[in-house]
Design goal:
heterodimer; A: Anthranilate synthase; 2 domains; 18-stranded antiparallel sheet; B: 185 residues; alpha/beta; 5 helices; 9 strands
Chain lengths: 387, 185
């Protein structure tokens, strides 16, 4: 374990660092010897070469960082037209030279945290949300999409202490894929619950979430499961995602090896229950990291289904860049093993502009008012950190 | 070899995986069809996909070229594609089934499957076949147990088969058996 006040010192030094949830606590990555800013032109080369380097097996033999939404679209040949936004990089990866274990409880508080009284602005109001919603519902009737996730974005101008935000966030909303990145001109804070790729040797798994229920005193895990099972809308959304992820894995896995390892179970978190499945397979021989990433990203459960036509519908509709939202954060080890999540429940702070994006699904029987409010509730947990 | 024509669906590789249990499989996008593979294949499969049959004229073309010459199988959109080429009309249905599990029934004596057998299947469709539908050698052999919507067609003479539901879905019981029987027919 590390010294007391280590985090505080690191934060004060203004050195870039990354924290990622591990099995028992967190891993801290710092002392970056390389920083690669991804573009359309270098992404393929980066992925190919990241697993080519031969060296002694060290804990830091990896690249850690994120792929934004747009670059993942480009990677699978889906076009995103010019959008408004922060002009934030499309993806950044770092080569760390130091990796340290952090305990489950992160002791860091900035008591001087700047309180922001400014209200968050939402990019789509209730009325325009309804218009988009009805448009997509029509597309569902024509069979162009079966499920589509409308993204709304809340933004604010504030300087933040990202480490303070992250420590408070994981205290109230611990999530298995939580992470933060702090660099000179930007920070990302996320309590993502969703693992997209976990690859070790030739075994790969993905763990989609479709269905969330807020905890109440009357609920328990068993009752949550029966709620999800009885709720036809939640079940249908979940079924679709399971079949889609099976198909994405089948692209890169040996015939007959793709299996549902955990089928529609409930996982309990501090404030909510998630309806999740775990799907896995055995990779075909000679599958490259690039092929794995292209098959799995962007993660289907936060886009909709079928992936390509739904992405096209979203990209025609959305006027503002999603930036990191529904992209993926994680690492690729030199030996080809990797772990990536889906970036949701996140804050991007770039040059003191904060954005929080959220999305909820439209299927044939969803209701516009309900989904709009759902989006607000998801964003609120993060906006509360600014108080 | 089985050649699967992908209509850019997110379920196509489940279909590929399922057919790989029985033979070598090749799969290409509907707009990147390889003429060599097409000619070499013993069976052509039209995948599920978004939209309607009229959006995929190339697939209709392939169907018409190889009808009666090769075994052809259509799934969901692929099923509708075959019917569309056989002058069937594909229309919107009131209730939309995306991610739905429902019970269907074998309704014909002439089916490869036992009449009156019921089983659960996974469905992903907003469109359906308008009935009545009649076409030489074609027969509707399975129907939804509740709504009576057409769920399968068989043409055992020209070896053409189609399913409105998804045999490859985890929601379908005995999907592999179904495909095995069709492939050995």
């Amino acid at each position: 374990m590390i010294k007391k006040n280590y985090l505080e010192n690191l934060n004060n030094l203004k050195k870039p660092f990354i924290i990622y949830r591990s099995n028992k606590g967190f891993d801290l990555y710092t002392d970056f010897s390389k920083k690669i800013i991804l573009t359309k032109n270098n992404i393929k080369r980066f992925i190919k070469e990241s697993t080519k380097i031969k060296s002694k097996k060290k804990e830091t033999d990896l690249y850690i960082g994120f792929f934004g939404y747009e670059i993942l679209n480009n990677l699978i040949g889906v076009k995103v037209k010019k959008q408004k936004g922060l002009k934030f990089p499309k993806g950044i990866f770092y080569k760390p030279e130091t990796k340290l274990k952090l305990p489950n409880k992160l002791n860091y508080r900035n008591l001087k945290t700047i309180k922001s009284n400014r209200l968050f602005k939402v990019n789509i109001n209730r009325a325009s949300y309804k218009i988009i919603f009805d448009k997509f519902k029509k597309k569902i009737k024509f069979g162009e999409t079966y499920q589509i996730k409308i993204c709304t974005k809340y933004s604010n101008k504030t300087q933040i202490d990202a480490l303070d935000f992250f420590c408070r966030l994981v205290e109230s909303n611990m999530a298995p894929e939580a992470f933060m990145i702090k660099d000179k001109d930007y920070s990302i804070i996320s309590c993502s619950p969703e693992n997209l790729i976990n690859k070790k040797n030739d075994i790969i798994t993905t763990k989609p979430i479709a269905g969330t229920l807020k905890k109440t005193k009357k609920l328990n895990k068993k009752k949550a499961l029966s709620f999800f099972k009885k709720n036809i809308k939640e079940s249908k959304e979940h079924n679709m995602i399971v079949d889609m992820e099976r198909s994405d894995l089948s692209r890169i896995c040996k015939a007959g090896s793709v299996k549902i390892l955990k089928k529609k179970i409930v996982e309990e978190y501090k404030d909510l229950y998630h309806y999740v499945s775990l799907i896995g397979g055995r990779l075909k021989n000679n599958i490259s990291s690039l092929e794995i990433i292209k098959a799995m990203m962007p993660g289907g459960s936060v886009i909709g289904c079928p992936k390509i036509s739904t992405l096209n519908l979203l990209n025609i509709q959305e006027k503002e860049s999603r930036n990191i939202y529904t992209g993926s954060f994680g690492y690729i080890k030199f030996n080809g093993d990797m772990r990536f999540n889906i970036i949701i429940r996140s804050i991007l702070n770039y040059k003191n502009n904060s954005e929080i994006s959220v999305a909820s699904g439209v299927v044939i029987d969803s209701n516009a008012k309900h989904e709009f409010n759902e989006n607000y509730i998801k964003a609120k947990a993060l906006m509360d950190l600014y108080k | 070899m089985i050649y699967i024509i992908d209509h850019k669906d997110s379920f196509t590789h489940n279909v590929v995986h399922q057919f790989e249990n029985f033979d070598d499989v090749m799969c290409d996008n509907h707009n990147e069809i390889n003429e060599e593979k097409l000619k070499k294949s013993k069976v052509i499969v039209f995948s599920p996909g978004p939209g309607a049959p009229k959006d995929y004229p190339r697939s209709s073309n392939i169907y018409k070229r190889f009808k009666g010459k090769k075994k052809m199988i259509g799934i969901c959109l692929g099923f509708q594609q075959i019917l569309h080429c056989e002058k069937g009309e594909i229309i919107q249905q009131k209730k939309i089934y995306h991610g739905y599990q429902s019970k269907i029934k074998v309704t014909s004596e002439n089916s490869l499957f036992t009449k009156n057998r019921k089983f659960k299947v996974g469905r992903y469709h907003s469109l359906k076949l308008k009935e009545p539908f009649a076409r030489k050698n074609f027969e509707i052999t399975m129907r939804c147990d509740i709504s009576n919507v057409a769920m399968a067609i068989e043409n055992n003479k020209e070896k053409i088969y189609g399913f409105q539901f998804h045999p490859e879905s985890f929601l379908t019981e005995n999907g592999n058996l179904l495909i095995k029987k069709i492939l050995s027919a």
